[in-house]
Amino acid sequence: MAALMVTPAPVAPTRQVRIDHYSAVHVAAETARAVAKECALPGAMPDQAAVVASELASNIDKHARNGVVYIQPLPLGGGLEVVAADRGPGIAEVARCLADGYTTTGTLGAGLGAVGRIATELAITSRTDTGTVVSARLALPRQREAARQPVGLVCLPAAGQEECGDAAAVVDLGGARTALVVDGLGHGREAAEAAQAAVRSFRGAAEGALPDIMTAMHRALRHTRGAAVALLRLHDGEAEYCGIGNVRMVALSPHEVHHRLTGQPGVVGWRMPAPHTHRVPLTPSTTTALHTDGIDLRWAHTPPGHLLRLPAPLLAATVAHAYHRTRDDATVLAARAPLGPS
């Protein structure tokens, strides 16, 4: 089976716009328009992306607190994702808010209804105690499957850093989904160079066995600062994990966290032990996540029940928003095995 998506997502961190003032609504809209153009989305799609970001940011500004908008290419390429997350007070009647014309502030009320009409795929969760997370995905007409795939990714630089020493990539080949999360040592440009070298090597070797991919990256990173690396391959009923360093894997069912794994001690590009693969059984309801140490690992120790039941795009955004240690680069990738054609 050929790869489901043929357009790889650019190696770039998630654009983050904190909604702490009404002027941030305009910043979110212009950022979404710019990222859409970087993704070569044609015609009116950059303007549509701007509308989606504007509406989601405006909802945070009017109704919520501690909100942020994340803007990035789809993990598998072929489009754009705009994610909004806040800390409450939540939406009591989500279904009504998705209908055009519904308003609680005396405004036009297009809001989430407009987002729902524009988006190829829309996911939303809201609780009055923890807040709201919305993922709106816009896909190219011939790559709408990219928006349906259960993969979520947020990759954030440390506070005050323009470049991100973390990176991630996802490839679908042969009926399996293979994902990479890499944490370049340290911060800034040299860490980012190591992370992106790992991504380039991964894309050239992604069909191989996970230890072979890791070994290829080790060679590619010899003249860099080095990195912690985790590889994940998802099939129906099983996950394979191969890690060097402290990029962690967590497998979650709707009721519990049932696997937590950390990579072997070492640094890819410097001193790496012979890599080996762990195999973890999966049920159809299991979501598997990789995250770097910029995410507080306590999130997976006693996660709230609603977190366990989130779809992959909302899980990644919720964990990133709630558990990012802002002094460090942070990446969360959540995924399930590939969906078949709809």
Automatic annotation (TrEMBL):
<protein>
    <submittedName>
        <fullName>Anti-sigma regulatory factor</fullName>
    </submittedName>
</protein>
<dbReference type="Pfam" id="PF07228">
    <property type="entry name" value="SpoIIE"/>
</dbReference>
<feature type="domain" description="PPM-type phosphatase">
    <location>
        <begin position="149"/>
        <end position="337"/>
    </location>
</feature>
<dbReference type="InterPro" id="IPR001932">
    <property type="entry name" value="PPM-type_phosphatase-like_dom"/>
</dbReference>
<dbReference type="InterPro" id="IPR039248">
    <property type="entry name" value="Ptase_RsbX"/>
</dbReference>
<dbReference type="InterPro" id="IPR003594">
    <property type="entry name" value="HATPase_dom"/>
</dbReference>
<dbReference type="InterPro" id="IPR036457">
    <property type="entry name" value="PPM-type-like_dom_sf"/>
</dbReference>
<dbReference type="Pfam" id="PF13581">
    <property type="entry name" value="HATPase_c_2"/>
</dbReference>
<dbReference type="InterPro" id="IPR036890">
    <property type="entry name" value="HATPase_C_sf"/>
</dbReference>
